[in-house]
């Protein structure tokens, strides 16, 4: 039995049982180790076995993501729901900041795309970008020379999502993505969490999520009073 045949370390009994059921219904042992870890985590989060053939992963890209996490690279998410699914690692998410809405109005972007543009100003090159909701945020990442360590591009929807994911896969950037309209915040966060777990098992806990000097761990801002937090691509 290898480390990838066991449920993730630190699993609670429900998670352990969930992985047992998952593995009784589908055999993913033919997949490369990190691809298997990501695929199982996404299926675990979604209860959708179609991801076994829908996800597109590359071991070298996943290894680059793990290395970036280990050295404390910034992580950027498109929406607060993705950020909420990540624990134990600082996340940059600009979607709820009023400046994102102002920038969107000024330059004619969606708020999601404007938030991605603002986030690049803070994160800089070498970040991990996690897009789980807004195709326009992924399009903005591809338009700008963000030089990412990894892009987790799993936006969901019938409008723009597959085209944005096709563009990501054609870009040559290190990426996790999928073929269909499926995706969403839960699966995008799950893909990152799978890599975070691998990084934690490979490196001392003290080195995880360490920010560069002068950088504070970013907090996901609350939505303005009286306004729901942005969640979809209409923002």
Task: Break the fold down into its secondary structure elements and pairings.
Elements: H1 13-25, H2 33-46, H3 51-54, E1 55-56, H4 59-70, E2 75-77, H5 80-84, H6 98-107, H7 111-123, E3 128-131, H8 135-143, E4 150-153, H9 161-171, E5 175-178, H10 185-202
Helix pairs in contact: 2-10, 4-10, 6-7, 7-8, 8-9
Structure write-up:
The chain is built from 10 helices and 5 strands. It has 235 residues and is of the alpha/beta class. It has a 5-stranded mixed beta sheet with strand order 1-5-4-3-2, with helices on both faces. Strand 3, helix 8 and strand 4 form a beta-alpha-beta unit.
- Strand order, largest beta sheet: 1-5-4-3-2
Helix content: 40-55%
| Global morphology | globular
What structural class is derived from the secondary structure elements?
alpha/beta
Task: Give a brief rundown of this model.
With 235 residues, the chain is of the alpha/beta class.
């Amino acid at each position: 039995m290898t480390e990838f045949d066991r449920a993730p370390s630190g699993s609670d009994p429900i998670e352990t049982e969930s992985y047992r059921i998952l593995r009784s219904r589908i055999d993913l042992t033919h997949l490369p180790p990190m691809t298997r870890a990501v695929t199982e985590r996404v299926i675990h989060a979604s209860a959708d076995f179609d991801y076994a053939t829908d996800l597109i992963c590359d071991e070298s890209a996943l290894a680059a993501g793990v290395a970036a996490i280990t050295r404390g690279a910034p992580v950027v998410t498109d929406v607060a729901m993705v950020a909420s699914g990540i624990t134990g690692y600082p996340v940059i998410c600009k979607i709820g900041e009023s400046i994102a809405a102002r920038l969107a109005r000024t330059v004619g972007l969606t708020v999601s795309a404007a938030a991605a543009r603002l986030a690049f100003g803070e994160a800089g090159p070498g970040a991990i970008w996690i897009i789980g909701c807004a195709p326009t945020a992924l399009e903005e990442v591809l338009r700008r020379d963000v030089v990412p360590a990894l892009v987790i591009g799993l936006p969901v929807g019938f409008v723009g999502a597959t085209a944005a994911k096709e563009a990501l896969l054609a870009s040559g950037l290190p990426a996790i993505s999928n073929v269909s309209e499926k995706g969403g915040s839960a699966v995008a966060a799950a893909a990152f969490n799978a890599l975070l777990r691998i990084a934690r098992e490979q490196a001392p806990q003290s080195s995880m999520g360490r920010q560069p000097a002068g950088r504070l761990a970013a907090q996901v801002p609350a939505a303005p009073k009286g306004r729901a937090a942005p969640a979809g691509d209409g923002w």
